[in-house]
Amino acid sequence: MSVLKAKLPKYLRQLAAVYDREKSTYQRDVITHGKWHLREGVEHDNWNGGMDGHVVLLFAPLTVVSQVSVGDQSSYASSILEDLSKLSSTADEYFAGVIIEVEDESDPECREATPFSERVLADPAKIEIWKPGLARVFMSHRDRTKVEVQQIADAMETYGMSCFVAHETIPDDEDWQKVILDGLDTMEIMVAITTDDFSQSPYCMQEVGYALGRGIPVISLKIDGRDPSGFIAHKQATRGSLIEPITAAQKLAPLLSKRLRTLERYKSILINSFCQSPSFNEAKSRFERMKSNVPELTDAQAEQISLAFGDSVQLNQSIYLTNQYQRLTSYMKNATQSDWKIELNRLVEDKAGPYDDLDDIPF
């Protein structure tokens, strides 16, 4: 192996980081979302005892490559070559060229190319599109349905699902393609809103392919008459309606929660959802869902609920949780095998000793 071939992955990672900082999104995405291949020894220069020149081929998805014209694509390739040449310090080798091409598995060089798999994936906790602690659900849909899909997403939140709806979730000043790719990289489940024209969208079909390639569960919500196509055609789709978002959410929730149980995430999601209850009604429904599905709590989970109760008016002022039926403290007792009580809007473990109920000790 040539020295430059061994060093090329390091050089590409460095350039990708620089391009990201400089907002050079096209060069960054060509590198990070594609594969590289080195065509070795395409040139030879007799200067200084002989030097071999190699050409770097960058194979990127069509959605990335097609963002610029063919002429601009050549200019970007030249700029990447210039930057790679600045990083190269090998005496008898050099980068002779950079070529940007669309990924094509029928191309033998593309099949031999190495994915840029060592790139640092986005941290879900640091991505604003996801609400902390909730299930990360990517909603793949056609643009014309974005408003209705967002309504379904809003209804899903009560079940502990944080749903990403591209056209409604991305802030105006963000790089939309990077945000979508971050969402695809960090999603836990995908819901495909399969309208009759769903398969006509290259983006929708690529999103589904991305999910399947990562081993992410894909659940289809069939809106129109046509069945899902492609690699999700063999799975039974759930019938739904865009004009009844709450009903659609009610149908999707048990399917998603079943998949989440296999990821051992469902219990923590329900606890997080309860702790983030935005209203008294939501506190009631989220509590009942947590109580029905989380029979036991770890010490950390019990502490999480206790802290959330003290910080949230929606919880500590909820009559449903704190009235004479003592629903919350009874649940905490059953789930932790310890006594709990409410004192001054705080949920605390009752660690009373064996003699604490005695007013006086007669000796």
Which strands sit side by side, in order, in the main sheet? Answer: 6-5-7-8-9
> Would you identify the CATH architecture of the largest domain?
3-Layer(aba) Sandwich
Radius of gyration: 27 Å
Low-confidence stretches: none
**Tally of individual helices:** 16
For the record, the CATH class of the largest domain is: Alpha Beta
Shape: elongated
Total tally of structural domains:
3
Number of strands: 11
Helical percent range?
Answer: 40-55%
Overall pLDDT level: 86
Percent of residues in β-strands:
15-25%
Q: Fill in the CATH topology of the largest domain.
A: Rossmann fold
Largest beta-sheet characterization: 5 strands, parallel
Element-level helix/strand string: HHEEHHEHEEHEHHEHEEHHHHHHHEE
CATH homologous superfamily assignment of the largest domain: Toll/interleukin-1 receptor homology (TIR) domain
**Termini Cα gap:** 89 Å
Structural class: alpha/beta
Summarize the structure.
By secondary structure, the chain is α/β, with parallel strands linked by helices. It is built from 16 helices and 11 strands.
Q: What would you say this structure looks like, in words?
A:
With 363 residues, this protein is of the alpha/beta class. It folds into three domains: 3-115, 2-Layer Sandwich (Alpha-Beta Plaits), CATH 3.30.70; 124-262, Rossmann fold (3-Layer(aba) Sandwich), CATH 3.40.50.10140; 269-349, no CATH class. The protein contains 16 helices and eleven strands. It has helices spanning 3-21, 25-32, 62-65, 70-87, 108-112, 146-156, 166-169, 176-186, 202-214, 245-262, 266-275, 280-293, 299-311, 313-316, 319-322, 327-336; strands spanning 35-45, 51-60, 93-102, 114-115, 135-140, 161-165, 189-194, 218-222, 238-239, 340-343, 346-349. The strands form three sheets. A five-stranded parallel beta sheet has the order 6-5-7-8-9, sandwiched between helices. A four-stranded mixed beta sheet has the order 3-2-1-4. A two-stranded antiparallel sheet has the order 10-11. Helix 9 (202-214) links the parallel strand 7 and strand 8 (218-222). Helix 1 crosses helix 2 and helix 11 packs antiparallel against helix 12 (280-293). The longest helix has 19 residues, at 3-21. The chain is elongated. The chain starts with a helix and ends in a 14-residue tail after the last strand. The relative contact order is 0.08.
